[in-house]
Design a protein that fits this description.
The chain is an alpha+beta fold. The chain folds into two domains: about 50 residues; about 100 residues, 2-Layer Sandwich (TATA-Binding Protein). It has a nine-stranded antiparallel sheet with strand order 1-2-3-4-5-9-8-7-6, with helices on both faces. Strand 1 and strand 2 form a beta hairpin.
Length: about 150
């Protein structure tokens, strides 16, 4: 699917879902940049997707693992960040590296490895994060997909 249409679809779907989450103050779509911003009386969420997504400055860099990482999507609010990225590293290597976050002051809450997919949960200071790791195989390559939900308490 073309990224412009994906961003528009995300914006429309999110505005419908958030319709019950406070008064909608506006949805701003910028398909050329892969951005959607939704404002309600309860806050603002900014989505970025596409080929030129950058990691938010406040995102802990130690949560990124693997070679040739590429941020695919971010969603930011004042309460947290959701970030998805791909890497050419094997999912087992990414899981192993992220499992060692306790060396950086993170407290491991959950570790689950089913072989097909993996999940980790950590907390640090006033942050909590949930990490899921899986694979995507196409005709061209096999990529590890990592999704991180970071909650700032």
């Amino acid at each position: 699917m073309n990224n412009k249409y994906l961003i528009i679809a995300i914006g429309i779907a999110t505005s419908l879902v958030l319709g019950g989450c406070g008064t909608n103050k506006g949805v701003t779509l910028n398909p050329d940049k892969g951005q959607v911003t939704i404002k309600t009386d309860e806050g603002e969420v900014k989505y970025n997707g596409g080929n030129n997504v950058k990691m938010p400055e406040s995102f802990p860099k130690e949560l990124m693992a693997g070679e040739n990482t590429k941020v695919i999507m971010t969603a930011t609010t004042d309460k947290g960040i959701t970030l998805a990225y791909s890497t050419t590293s094997k999912k087992e290597d990414v899981f192993s590296k992220l499992s060692e976050l306790s060396k950086n002051g993170w407290k491991k809450e959950v570790e689950l490895n089913t072989g097909d997919g993996m999940m980790l949960s950590f907390s640090k200071e006033k942050m909590k994060c949930l990490i899921t790791i899986g694979e995507e195989t196409s005709d061209k390559e096999k990529l590890t997909q990592v999704s991180i939900v970071l909650d700032k308490e």
